[in-house]
Amino acid sequence: MDYRQENATAGYVYIISNIGSFGPDVVKIGVTRRLDPQERIDELGSASVPFKFDVHAFIFSYDAYSLEAKLHQRFNDKRINKVNNRKEYFHVSIDEIEKVLEEYKDLTVDFHEIPEAVEYNQSLALEH
C-alpha cells in the first residue's frame, strides 16, 4: 500500500525558482502528493513560462500541507501577490529560506542554492 493512501497529508514541499521568467530571489513554495515531485515541476515549467523551473529543494513530510502553510506564513510579508494567497510566489533569497528550514530538525532537506537556469543561460549566451 502506498504511504499516501494511509496518510492523506504526506507529500513533498517544493521550493523552485525561474530566474529567466521572474528574476533573482523569486521563489514558488508549493506542495505535491505525487510520488515523483519532479513531474509537478515539469508541468509548471511547460505551461505559461518561457523557461523551465529550477528545483532548490524537495522536502518530504508526512504533514506536507502544514509545512507549506507554515512557510507561507513565515514569508507572508515577502509574498508577491498580496491579494490572491493561492499565488505562492515570494520575493525571498534562497539563503533565507535555507536558514528557516534549519529550524525544522526532523526534516531531511537537500538544498541546491544556485539555480542552473540552463535554458535561460543558453539564451543569454546566444545573444552575445
User: From the alpha-carbon coordinates, what is the Rg to the nearest angstrom?
Assistant: 15 Å
> Which oligomerization state do the chains in this entry correspond to?
single chain
The helix content is: 25-40%
Question: What structural class results from the helix and strand content?
Answer: alpha+beta
As a percent range, the share of strand residues is: 15-25%
- Largest sheet report: 4 strands, antiparallel
Instruction: Choose one word for the global shape.
Output: globular
Mean of pLDDT:
90
Question: Topology of this protein?
Answer:
Elements: H1 3-6, E1 11-17, H2 19-22, E2 26-32, H3 38-46, E3 54-61, H4 64-74, E4 89-91, H5 94-101, H6 118-127
Antiparallel strand pairs: 1-2, 1-3, 2-4
Report on the structure:
The model has no long low-confidence stretch (mean pLDDT 90). A 4-stranded antiparallel β-sheet has the order 3-1-2-4. It has 6 helices and 4 strands. Helices cover 36% and strands 20% of the residues. The radius of gyration is 15 Å and the shape is globular. The N and C termini lie far apart (53 Å). The relative contact order is 0.21. The protein has one domain. The chain is α+β, with helices and mostly antiparallel strands and 128 residues long.
